[in-house]
Write a structure and sequence with these properties.
single chain; alpha/beta; Rossmann fold; Dehydroquinate synthase-like, alpha domain; 2 domains; 7-stranded parallel β-sheet; two-stranded antiparallel sheet; 11 strands; binds nicotinamide-adenine-dinucleotide
């Protein structure tokens, strides 16, 4: 019998908007967007899930959202705005996923309604996951409130939670319908969370854009001093490079290559080993340092360029390394990160290394002796800085 064959393409479109005071009633960006998506003017609901770190830092937020939708009432606000913990706990503890799913059920959120998540990357990952599994996919809107989620995680296509003690073990590739980056949320970030996201900008500059690397070098000081103009440019540029990469590459990662995960194989493992004491962006900065020195020691990157990277990491206020990144004799748990990284990508191990500032190549094998040497070198350089 002849076999049957089918092939189809699904088109995804989403915009990332940049604004301030998204829920000010005079700001019609969100309401105009929702109207555009609803030309037939049917009744659609919008259900908000808010990161408690954001809710605590912005106590007026719930009231502002309610006020906004009382003025812009073409979309029906679910009055019960759900506030749940932000940070990695929301991805580690499945009970929070259950709470969101329960609310979807209770409030009758259907596939033509919206779930809007306001928060850091962790909350957005979890709520995005809940949205994409409930009813096989409810439209989700992301309103990222950290630097990392505005420049990187919130503008991508991935959702997920941690499971079996592995980062993002459960998850989906499913883009949001829109992302609204509101810089007024950033003022209340702790210094650590303000800085953390800059690591993702450094990552994308190193693998793709030498000019952006120069810009980061020249603007490290204003960014660290919390200059909003510098930070906004960094977020915009990083989000743009990230989105261009997703479009030109392999958005749903069907191959084994994942250049946007430069520096991440050790970072993900370090987050776990430190019991999330080390934040994602901080771990990424250390992972970048490790793979940069590895790139130098393995003859790919010049000494001068590798030193520029390390200097910039320190100028941005990051640590270069962590005791848990050291490779000792015998089993070193950090090395398990390589196999876990491979398993998560599927297929052959593929790690991105630097060949210059703004250029990279993929390798399929990492030498544990060179990793050990790189980690040791970073430890010495960090100690020298601490004692100088
Ligand atoms: P986070 O989500 O852990 O948030 C950090 C802390 O900041 C939390 O305590 C949160 O409550 C608080 N917070 C958030 N916004 C705030 C605000 N405006 N004011 C005050 N406090 C605020 O940190 P993150 O760096 O945004 O995200 C890290 C997560 O993102 C990790 O789980 C990581 O795996 C994930 N990530 C996902 C992708 C992806 O493609 N989906 C990419 C990179 C990272």
């Amino acid at each position: 019998m002849e076999h049957l064959q089918q092939s189809f393409t699904v088109q995804y479109n989403f915009n990332v908007f940049f604004t301030t005071a998204l829920f000010s009633v005079e700001n019609d960006l969100l309401s105009s967007f929702l109207s555009l998506l609803n030309p037939a003017k049917t009744v659609k609901k919008i259900f908000f899930v808010v990161d408690d770190g954001v809710a605590n830092a912005h106590p007026e937020l719930k009231k502002q959202i309610k006020n906004y939708f009382s003025k812009h009432h073409q979309t029906q606000l679910v009055q019960d705005i759900l506030v749940i913990p932000g940070g990695e706990a929301v991805k580690n503890e499945a009970k929070y996923l259950d709470v969101v799913l329960e609310a979807v059920n209770t409030h009758g959120i259907d596939r033509h309604s919206y779930i809007a998540a306001i928060g850091g990357g962790a909350l957005l990952d979890m709520v995005g996951y809940a949205a994409t599994i409930a009813h096989r996919g409810i439209r989700h809107i992301r309103i990222p409130t950290t630097v990392l989620s505005q420049n990187d995680s919130g503008v991508g296509v991935k959702n997920g939670i941690n499971f079996f003690n592995k980062k993002n073990f459960l998850g989906t590739f499913s883009p949001p319908v829109a992302v609204f980056n509101d810089c007024s949320f950033l003022n209340t970030l702790s210094d650590r969370d303000w800085r953390s996201g800059i690591a993702e900008a450094l990552k994308i500059a190193l693998i793709k854009d030498a000019e952006f690397f120069d810009w980061l070098e020249a603007n490290a000081k204003p960014m660290v001093e919390r200059n909003m103009e510098a930070m906004n440019y960094q977020i915009w540029k990083c989000a743009k490079l990230h989105m261009e990469h997703i479009k030109s590459g392999d958005p749903f990662e069907s191959g084994s290559s994942r250049p946007l995960d430069f520096g991440h194989w050790s970072a993900h493992k370090l987050e776990y080993l430190s019991n999330f004491e080390v934040k994602h962006g901080e771990a990424v900065a250390m992972g970048i340092a490790l793979d940069t020195v590895y790139s130098n020691l393995s003859g790919r990157l010049s000494w001068a360029d590798s030193q520029r990277v390390l200097k910039l990491i320190q100028a941005l206020g990051f640590e270069l390394t962590h005791r848990l990144l050291q490779v000792n004799e015998g089993d070193s748990p950090i090395l398990d990160g390589l196999e876990e990284f491979r398993e998560h990508l599927g297929g052959e191990l593929t790690v991105t290394l630097l060949t210059g500032l703004g250029s990279a190549e993929e390798v399929h094998k990492m030498d544990s002796e060179i990793i050990k040497e790189a980690a040791k070198f970073l430890n010495q350089q960090a100690t020298r800085k601490a004692t100088s």
